[in-house]
Amino acid sequence: MTTVRLPLFPLNSVLFPGLVLPLNVFEERYRAMMRELLKTPEDEPRRFAVVAIRDGHEVAPSAPGMPDPTALPERGPAAGFGPDPLTSFHKVGCVADAATIREHTDGTFEVLATGTTRVRLLSVDASGPFLTAELAPLAEEPGDEAGALAEGVLRSFRQYQKRLAGARERSLSADAELPDEPGVVSYLVAAAMMLDTPTKQRLLQAPDTASRLRDELKLLRSETAIIRSLPSLPASDLTRGTTSLN
């Protein structure tokens, strides 16, 4: 099995292939990661892996003494992730390619990356200034009837958008172009729906595109029915990627 070792950036959200990931990086462990990535020539990909943090595991507190007023905040590459960081993360993540890494005068970074391919998390190394991981690429198989399922998902997603716009008392462009390639459709819809992290993670690690689309079709129908009965919903941009304040 071919594996690769990359810097690891855990988030409280899921990144999908093809989706944009803007990051504001201020923790030292992630600053060190970005400084290392900047050593990569501009004509080569500056890659790192994004994994979602499991429920119940939180990033180390940024305020001294929180939540225990007598304790100091943890520091180091694995701070907040326990003695075995591997158990704190979901096992399927996504490689991100950083198109832009901009350092500010205060040492923080503004990063714009794009999800590329799914990977399986095999091991985590906390011996350096930031986490690294051994990863195995996950192939994306189309599965049975992916094309027909994608058409059904797009129709349902349009209805979902309209219901969501109505519940939020604002309009969404009916003329916005959506892709028709089944794999791209499956990831776009997974990222755009207002779902919790475990559900998005389930969609990311679906065994094939058709399975993901079938799951999304069920979710779209149920979510649309729920929205129909709600008077209002919080604002959310359906086309934006995840932003993390690590």
Automatic annotation (TrEMBL):
<dbReference type="InterPro" id="IPR046336">
    <property type="entry name" value="Lon_prtase_N_sf"/>
</dbReference>
<dbReference type="InterPro" id="IPR015947">
    <property type="entry name" value="PUA-like_sf"/>
</dbReference>
<dbReference type="Pfam" id="PF02190">
    <property type="entry name" value="LON_substr_bdg"/>
</dbReference>
<feature type="domain" description="Lon N-terminal">
    <location>
        <begin position="6"/>
        <end position="224"/>
    </location>
</feature>
<dbReference type="InterPro" id="IPR003111">
    <property type="entry name" value="Lon_prtase_N"/>
</dbReference>
<protein>
    <submittedName>
        <fullName>LON peptidase substrate-binding domain-containing protein</fullName>
    </submittedName>
</protein>
